[in-house]
Amino acid sequence: MSVVTTAAVAPGFDRDLPRHVSLRQTWRDSMIMARRSLVKMRRTPEQLIDVTLQPIIFTVMFTYIFGGAIAGDVQSYLPLFIPGILVQTVLTGASAAGTNLREDMDKGVFDRFKSLPIARIAPLSGALTGDLVRYLIAGVITFVMAFVMGYRPEGGLFGVTMTMLLVMACAWALSWIFALVGVSMKSARGVQGIAFLILFPLTFLSSAFVPTETMPGWLQAFVKVNPVTHIISAARDLCNYGTFGTDGWLALGGAALVIAIFAPLTVRKYRTHT
Questions:
Q1: I need a surface site. Which of 8, 36, 53, 246 has the fewest CB within 10 A?
Q2: pLDDT at 12
Q3: Which structural domain, as residue segments, surrounds residue 263?
């Protein structure tokens, strides 16, 4: 009579899981997690408050506060302002990615994901991909409010569509930075504080609200190298002229660089510190 013994495996230990996952499976797992994010969004619609109310409040408020002082009248200010507020609104929505991840981790949801035979990046990339719906909602509401106030982009439907795609792609890339903050911090409140410190100077110290020529020289130097400025300039070119130039390529190149750096760092941090 022979006895077969099996070594006990600690919960969550993934010794028997494949170490390398194909791109096809990674895509499939990420889409499943993105679907989970959308279901969660549908069941907790209060998560959409920031991307539904903020575009309305900010677009109306800043237009009528700054329009006359900067451009002389509201109609002249809209071509400068609308692309800028669009970028700020969508990037603000992206900053919530880290907070949402931290809240899920605090509930123990991601501990379960780590024990499943899925791509290690899927819980993160899926959650961030699901947030694209939030960015789309914010962008559509911003353009609707702009149209109501009289903004008519010369780039037409093509320019508006390409602007939305560009801004959403850049927001998705930057959301990896906030995701890294989310998996690194110990509380959702801490994530919110760090996200604010990252986002506030990038959006307000840019060309979003005023022409850069009106700024002091030392501030212009920062604004010109600010990556958000390139996104805004590319959005203005697409909306107002229907063109895609150097700023657009710089925005896409910067987005690709951010993903290449922060996506691996976020996955590594998630695997070792959650």
A1: 8
A2: 43
A3: 23-273
